[in-house]
Design a protein that fits this description.
about 280 residues, 3 domains, four-stranded antiparallel beta sheet, binds zinc ion
Length: about 280
């Protein structure tokens, strides 16, 4: 409220006051910051929206929130961010400190990823491609970067020439509102080129295991469960194939016996799988 809130221009979605400055506009009318904060879509997409599009999007986002709240993880993997995975329904999301409604993706949404160091593309992977496992010593791409780094520093004294860059991994996905999603942005630095390259190699090994996991999930989507659910919606997949149900039950029983999930969680999963 107050100086920066425009009471005269109520948000067309919820009726709250809208910001006087820098408000997101839909059909030329400003919307409130609360509604604006719920939007998660590709850059530039919002500009073309009508009120109807925005309402559909907000409904989609609240469905997503339900998915997050009712998420049944089978495992959690931590790289730069915590990745929460539901292997049964083939869903995953990344935890975020700033966001209580992170997008939930299906394994089958994954179409690729892109690794960038500063302005240089280190690797681009697309679904269906094989990936060459990362080897710090003989990685051609890193050798290329090393060469670029030495070219950049060719006229400088190599010693005490501190270098700094960001290592970014972006997931390419096929969902109605998001086609790219930043998974991590890690700063790499060194007092000189050698130290810098060491740091790059160190961070690359973390990034690599994340990327290999994404490929594995994408392959899993091709192999099985939920392939029939080609819809762009975000419903949790319901399994109709009996063999698959049995296989899943076995998997969960093993997880329970291994202590990964509790007996209660197993019972809940069993009921869900059997539809009781
Ligand atoms: Zn609003």
């Amino acid at each position: 409220m107050g100086l920066f809130t425009n009471k005269d221009k109520a948000c067309p979605i919820c009726g709250k006051g809208t910001p006087r400055l820098f408000a997101t506009k839909i059909e030329g009318a400003p919307i409130c910051s609360e509604c604006n904060n719920k939007i998660l879509a590709d850059q530039g997409m919002v500009d073309k929206w009508t009120f109807e599009n925005l309402k559909e999007h907000l409904a989609y986002r609240s469905e997503n929130k339900k998915l997050v709240e009712n998420f049944t993880p089978t495992r959690t993997v931590t790289h730069e961010r915590e990745m929460v995975i539901d292997d049964v329904n083939q869903l995953f999301y990344f935890k975020s400190w700033i966001e209580d409604n992170p997008p939930v993706f299906k394994f089958s949404d994954i179409t690729g990823f892109n690794i960038q160091l500063g302005c240089d593309t280190v690797e681009t992977w697309c679904k269906g491609m094989e990936r060459t496992p990362y080897q710090p010593a003989s990685n051609g791409i890193l050798a290329g970067i090393s060469m670029l780094a030495s070219l950049a520093g060719a006229n400088k004294d190599d010693k005490d020439e501190s270098m700094y860059d960001n290592l970014n991994v972006r997931l390419q996905i096929d969902t109605p509102y998001l086609h790219e999603y930043e998974l991590c942005s890690i700063s790499v630095s060194g007092q000189n080129q050698t130290a810098y390259m060491d740091d790059v190699a160190r961070q690359m090994s973390k990034v690599n295991s994340l990327c290999n996991l994404l490929i594995a999930l994408s392959k899993e989507a091709d192999n099985g469960i939920g392939t029939a659910s080609g819809s762009a919606g975000v419903q949790t997949g319901t399994t109709t194939d009996t063999n698959q149900v049995v296989a899943d039950l076995k998997k969960f029983k093993e997880l329970m016996e291994a202590g990964v999930i509790s007996a209660e969680e197993f019972e809940a999963k069993k009921k869900q799988l059997l539809g009781i």
